[in-house]
Every structure is written in structure tokens, then in C-alpha cells.
Design goal:
Elements: H1 6-34, H2 38-64, H3 75-89, H4 96-127, H5 131-163
Helix pairs in contact: 1-2, 1-3, 1-4, 2-5, 3-4, 4-5
Length: about 160
């Protein structure tokens, strides 16, 4: 697709973020299974639920704009998911807390990618006068920030200390 306008960029990025979420969903679920800390595992499960909710919202927005949510493949998230496997799922660790610390690191990298995507989409929707879209995307952006902050609290609340 030729991107001729901000509306074209907006639609392209809706599809790209949907793809990113789809890819990160399985990786987040795997991280949750790999975590030994109960609070971390529960937070990652909540993260998976949040990603699924975001996918539903993105799919609905794509339908509103007559585009296929599957119309794009996010290579950026593909790389981040490969990192999850290389640095957590398929890696060897000397202790559970060390694995948990790395799981948080990799999860937050995926989350920060999603934060950038949602933030840009909110700005595009606002500029295009798509107020309802902007409100939906902003709510998802806020929930994603909340999940990121929770991971930081879990890391600094004990996992990093135990891993040290």
C-alpha cells in the first residue's frame, strides 16, 4: 500500500500493532509459564489478558476502517519475540530469580514497543479527528503503562535483589 496521507499511516499502524500484539501474546504466555515467582507469573498472565483485550479493540477499529487486521506483519515484534526465546525460554539459568529478572527485561521490551505503537496511534487518531478511536486507544495505552509499572515494581520489589 502506498502511504499518501496520515490516514494511510494510521491504518497501516493499526495493522502493524495488531500483528505485534498477536506475536507478543504467545511469548508473554510462555514467559508466564517460565516464571518461578508467583506474583510475576500472575502479572504476566494479566499481561496476556491485556494483550488479548488490545487485540480485540484493534480488530474492531480495523473493521471500522474496512481494513484486515492481519494485513501487516510486524518485523520489529518478531525480533523481540526471538529475543524472548533466546534469552529466557531457551536459555539456561543458575537460579530462578535470575530467569525471572530476565523475563521481566524481555517482557518490558515488548511492552515498550506496544507503548510506542499505541502512543502514535492516539496522536494520529486525535489529529484525524477520530475521537472515538482516540479514546479507545488511549484507554489501552493507559492499561499498557499500568502493566509496565507493575513489572518495574515486581523487579525492584525483590526479584532483582534475589537475582543479585
Amino acid at each position: 500500500m502506498t502511504l499518501n496521507s496520515l490516514e494511510d499511516v494510521y491504518k497501516d499502524q493499526l495493522q502493524d500493532l495488531y500483528s505485534a500484539c498477536k506475536q507478543s501474546l504467545d511469548a508473554t504466555t510462555e514467559l508466564g509459564r517460565a516464571a518461578s515467582d508467583k506474583e510475576l507469573s500472575e502479572a504476566l498472565i494479566a499481561g496476556s489478558n491485556g494483550i488479548a483485550t488490545g487485540m480485540d479493540k484493534l480488530k474492531s477499529l480495523c473493521a471500522t476502517h474496512d481494513i484486515d487486521p492481519e494485513g501487516e506483519h510486524c518485523k520489529g515484534m518478531e525480533g523481540l519475540v526471538k529475543e524472548v526465546h533466546a534469552h529466557v525460554i531457551d536459555a539456561d539459568f543458575g537460579g530462578d530469580a535470575t530467569r525471572d529478572a530476565m523475563a521481566i527485561t524481555q517482557y518490558q521490551r515488548m511492552v515498550h514497543y506496544a507503548l510506542a505503537g499505541y502512543g502514535c496511534l492516539v496522536a494520529f487518531a486525535n489529529r484525524l479527528g477520530l475521537n472515538e478511536d482516540a479514546a479507545i486507544l488511549k484507554a489501552q495505552l493507559d492499561e499498557t503503562y499500568d502493566g509496565d509499572r507493575r513489572m518495574t515494581e515486581i523487579a525492584t520489589g525483590g526479584i532483582n535483589k534475589r537475582a543479585a
